[in-house]
User: What shape does this take?
Amino acid sequence: MKLLDKSKLIKNHEITALDNLEMFCKNIEKNNGNYNAFLEIDKSSARDRAVDIDSRIKAGEKVGKLAGMVVGIKSNINVEDFHITAASKTLENYLGSYDATVVKRIKEEDGIIIGMTNMDEFAAGSSTETSYFGHTENPAAMGRIPGGSSGGSAVAVASEMCDLSIGSDTGGSIRNPASHCGVMGFKPTYGLVSRQGLLDLAMSFDQIGPFSRDTSGVALMLDVIGGYDETECTSIDNKIPSFVDNVEKSGESLKGTKLGVVKQFFDVSDDKIVAIIEQSIDKMREMGAEVVELSFDYIDLCLPTYYLINYVEFFSATRKYDGRKYGKRIEDVCGEEVLRRIHMGSYISQKEFSGKYYKKALQARSLIKIEVNKLLNGVDAIVGPTVPKLPHKIGTTLEPMDMYSYDVLTVIANLAGIPAASMKAGEVNGIPVGLQIQGKPFEDSKIIEIMAKIDEIH
Assistant: This one.
């Protein structure tokens, strides 16, 4: 059942919000021990909210867009009275004292927050193996990583432990686990969704976005969390169309849609993944889309540019974790990857190296942004693989550059600030493969429309 259909049934009192919640509570009880997707659950408050929503529906009162929908929140987004740990020992006892803007909006629209999801420590990773609270399993490919850093949020949706979840995407942290777990994940245009209440990884890249099992769920959540927030400096005051309306009137034809395929995105991807993506593109052609080949000569520049900026911004963001105000001193208790990024950021930030590395990375970023916008100029969207390789087996020892190479196709959207999504294209030996769709800035609705049409034929 599509999420929008379920939402209508709850509002019509054909399914109660409490029944919907209890079904997920049972699934959490049964599955979370195996998957470790949720780090903290609050069934009691969730039940109180569900009962309140049901009584208001019964009384004929107006309820919010997310009425009765059960939602998981990534553990680096503030929710009052939940532990906001960023999956680190640094903040293991830190209790949220306020709601992030996105959380406030979810609650205002009657979404039921069930708990906090697992992630890579401080969002520094692509596997959800670096969490202080243990790794997360991939329900779609047991024994393999679910991707990261928002692995818990992707798994919570993939294993039907909630209707929807939200994560953060700095270089692919929503799209990467969406691809590995076979669900939908959406990184909005930079500035479309407020970052207020998010623990920074790299401020100029971070965006909050949704996970869902179908397009209508992505659209519904974006309708709620998107939009201007005057309390947040990166928020952009742009008129946003109704994403749900776009889904409902999408139809099944891609006639009139021009899609770009970038040769280099396929060159860096495993052959088995390429074969699945090419099948998806063939289906889009059959649906009436015009497909044109594009070339992007700067792919080798993207990862080093992204990580140099990431290191510096992460180092700066972590200076507040000095053990005085809250938590423990980060350098004393954090994991290997977090420490690596702090040391690298500290080194690059030094006056004598800043011009050599950081300023050059900022120039490279401007170039990449210009070139990506040129690519998008003549097309409605760019389609291709989300992740260039299949998820590795949990516990495999990888060199940092091997781990970073998972991000080669996703960091581009963060560098350019454009919207991008991942949806399931198929499977290689039972392991999900994601199709990435990237669009022009603030044309998030165009991506939703394309996703909805593809969703219809799956």
Q: What stands out?
A: The mean pLDDT is 96. Residues 49 and 112 are 7 Å apart (CA to CA). The first strand starts at residue 38 and ends at 41.
